[in-house]
Amino acid sequence: MNPTVASSLPFLILIVPLIGFFLNGVVIPLASGGITKTKPTISGGIATFAMAVSFVLAVQAFFQLSSNSTALEYTGFRWIDFGNLSISLNLRIDRLSSLMTMIITGIGTLIHFYSISYMSHEKGVARFFAYLNLFCFAMLLLVLSDNLLFLFFGWEGVGLCSYLLISYWYEEEANADAARKAFLVNRIGDLGFVLGMCVLYVQLGTLNFAEMMARISPTAAIGLLSLAGVLLFFASTGKSAQFPLYVWLPDAMAGPTPVSALIHAATMVTAGVYLFARMAFLFELSPELMTIVSYTGALTALLGGILALAQTDIKKVLAYSTVSQLGFMFLALGVGAYQTAVFHLMTHAFFKALLFLGAGSVIHGCDGEQDMRKMGGLAKSMPITFVTMLLGSAAIVGLPIFSGFFSKDEILYMALGAPRGNWILFGAGLVAAFLTGVYTIRMLTQTFWGPSKAGIHGHESAWIMTLPLVILAVLATFGGFLGIPHEIGTWFGVEHSHLLNAWLDPVVQQVNVAGESAPLPELAVSGIAVAVAIFGLIAGRTFLKNISFENSPLLSRLFVGQHFMDTFYASWVVAPLYWMSRHIIQTFESGFMGNIGGWIGVGSTWSGERLRLTQSGDIQLSMLSIVTGLAFVVGILIIWVAV
Amino acid sequence: MVEPVVAILAVVVAVLATLTVFSRSPISSAFCLVIMMVGLAGIYGVSGAHFIAALQAIVYAGAIMVLFVFSIMLLNMNDETSEIRFKTWKAFVAVLFSGGLCVAMAWVFIQWGSETHLPTPGTMTLEQIRLVGGNVVAVSGQLFSNAYIQFEFISLLLLVAIASALVLAKRKVD
Amino acid sequence: MSTATLLHILSAYLFCMGMLGLILRRNTIVMLMSIELMLNAVNLSFVTFARELAQLNGQVQVFFIITIAAAESAVGLSILINVYRSFGSIKTDHTTVMRS
């Protein structure tokens, strides 16, 4: 491949989904006479094709990178150029971006394809596919940008698309509310992003990643840079649904299931993890912050696991499970295991997309029913969905050879063995892994096994929906082999068995765990983790099968429905805000500002009534005014000169 | 020292200007104005501005005033009632300020009108003008050398004026 | 008092008289005449200064002013004729409305 094509690859990868968005958003609705008349096959076909092209290009970029170059760079236009600030739309694919790009476009393609069938009963699906393509564009901009500002554009863009897609069925009030909630909570986090960017620019004078990295070592003002790190972490808690800003993610399940799979499981919510991996050089400056990050991650993992137990909606279970898995990733980030976090990001993208799509297939097969209490015995009527979801569940629980086994065990090993790791983090991770087993088996039991309830029997989905399930099941099963631990690798005489670490080594930092310093060897950790997971499965299958919080008023108040963070926010943030606003309205607005308006009106009317009389159309009077003015001017001039 | 001819002409012009403004019928105003124009032409002539004096007589006293008189005849304005209302506050203010302005300007000229307050004079004294062949030659030379662009623009303006006067005065078809 | 000063005072007098006529008279034709009066005052001022300063620029300027005065009165009078047609009068107290 010649160099010109190679360097324009980032641009092409980015622009193809945008073209798809344009076609679906503008051309197709115009051509078919209104957006409600668009056909799912045509719109979905175009959108899927755009993503597939993007994926092929991403694979090409991957091979390009693996053969020789360190990064593919595309120089776009210069956007801002004044003073010292120079921001250009420059795209850059290095090894981390390449991995993210392949995940986004690959899983994106599958989910677009799946959506053709899933959304086939909808009217006006061009809107849906246009949003999906726009989302992919924004997400790709996020991972391809070589500076923080355009990353922020992507960051905002995915937030916007998330908002648009959660409220896709905007006729229902609850969906619109959920979208607004997601948008507002994300804005709170984004404030941190903007402030962090400002601090970084003031301190370093650039927003380009490479330049920031080069300038960061000689800078003395570590304190302010740590502040920037804290602010960016705050932004990440919003976007990646960490404690305390995770509350929007479960509500975001109001959107169509493919959206949940693509945006709220596989890609968008991992933006925070990507940001940490990209900006590791900054976050590593303050170990205290990273400690907070790791404990936040552990807490989120536990909380997500507990809350997932209490859910009756199949998608909500998966949503809290996502929160929990994101907590795992932040736990890994916190202890400095950036590559491990990216590894779990990848495997999680595989198995969580699979689980969501499977859940979507179940919902589709049950004609829109999402309540697990009404399901049951679907294993017989939906065999492909059942088998693929079983594989996905095995992956998320972390059974050996499945992908989650490798990534989650690595996180647990790092939580214990890394310099910042300790037994508390390890224990929290183990408990979260146990909870993972419980809620997963609970979901499977209620959905697929046992007698069918409420007369729902379900039917298997069309091949368009099952094919992505099968592909994702393969990925979820074997994806973990990209990261075989070194110890196992040596058994088979393979030197670099952890392919992902080898791939990411040039761009992403990773803490080293010296084998002797770790309290437990990696294999022992794996053994414990698998044992805990299997214990969780058994416990969930036997004791906690019909776990229900409805019988206990206290627990149900805490966990089901109006869970405690929402209540907390409502009573401590929203209510004071309303109280303050109400008082401002009463005293300032209606008492003062309202009257000012009245006074201005009265004054204008009063003066207008009088000034109107001068506009009589009398030329003589106008002339007299001119002469009077002239006389005054001349008089002033004469006095000025003479005196 | 004031030249006697100029003094006489100045008094005549001033009186006629006053009559122009205050006479009752428009037609007598117009006649006063014509004579005033001729008086002014005389002043120009005495001042050595022969070209301007000729223009004043031809264009103002000839063309423009004919136009005025013609319009008055055409509009048939024989209404001789006095339209000036002297007893109003407007008239009082107008007379006050106009008179004040006139006195102020006169005072300024008397106070600072002497040659010490003027910029350095140019070279075109009356003798010099006589040497180059008279006032008409001198002004025409200026007009067609230094001011020819303005001259062309003025001709364009006249053209526009002719066209617009035609359009405006044409009786509307209705 | 020199001749030039006398002429300047005359110019000031003519100007103020034109202004007064413009304010006091309600007959539009006389108002136009007053404007001519004011223009003449300026012309006189120019000519006097031209002689005082031994320059010809003032006279060239007067030439232009006379031309513009001619154009102005031609247009002004044709407007008057139109006004007379519309209102039946050219007194300003009868023509205070812009709409017909």
What can you see in these coordinates?
The complex is a heterotrimer of chains A (643), B (174) and C (100). Chain A has 643 residues and is mainly α. Chain A has helices at 3-31, 40-67, 95-118, 125-144, 148-166, 173-204, 209-216, 222-239, 248-251, 257-266, 271-278, 280-283, 287-309, 314-334, 338-365, 378-381, 383-397, 403-417, 423-448, 463-478, 486-491, 499-504, 522-542, 553-559, 564-611, 619-642; strands spanning 72-82, 85-93. Chain A folds into 3 domains: 1-146; 179-555, no CATH class; 568-642, no CATH class. Chain A is globular. The model of chain A has no long low-confidence stretch (mean pLDDT 83). Chain B is an all-alpha fold. Chain B folds into 2 domains: 1-78, Up-down Bundle (Four Helix Bundle (Hemerythrin (Met), subunit A)), CATH 1.20.120; 121-174. The model of chain B has no long low-confidence stretch (mean pLDDT 86). Chain B contains 7 helices and no strands. Chain C has 3 helices and no strands. The relative contact order of chain C is 0.13. Chain C has helices spanning 3-24, 28-53, 57-87. At the B-C interface, helix 1, helix 2, helix 3, helix 4 and helix 5 of B face helix 1, helix 2 and helix 3 of C.
Write the layout of secondary structure elements.
The complex is a heterotrimer of chains A (643), B (174) and C (100).
Chain A: H1 3-31, H2 40-67, E1 72-82, E2 85-93, H3 95-118, H4 125-144, H5 148-166, H6 173-204, H7 209-216, H8 222-239, H9 248-251, H10 257-266, H11 271-278, H12 280-283, H13 287-309, H14 314-334, H15 338-365, H16 378-381, H17 383-397, H18 403-417, H19 423-448, H20 463-478, H21 486-491, H22 499-504, H23 522-542, H24 553-559, H25 564-611, H26 619-642
Helix pairs in contact in A: 1-2, 1-4, 2-3, 2-4, 3-4, 3-10, 3-15, 3-20, 4-5, 5-6, 5-10, 6-8, 8-11, 10-15, 11-15, 13-14, 13-19, 14-15, 14-18, 14-19, 15-17, 15-18, 15-20, 17-19, 17-20, 18-19, 18-23, 19-23
Chain B: H1 4-22, H2 26-46, H3 50-75, H4 89-112, H5 126-132, H6 135-145, H7 148-169
Chain C: H1 3-24, H2 28-53, H3 57-87
Helix pairs in contact in C: 1-2, 2-3
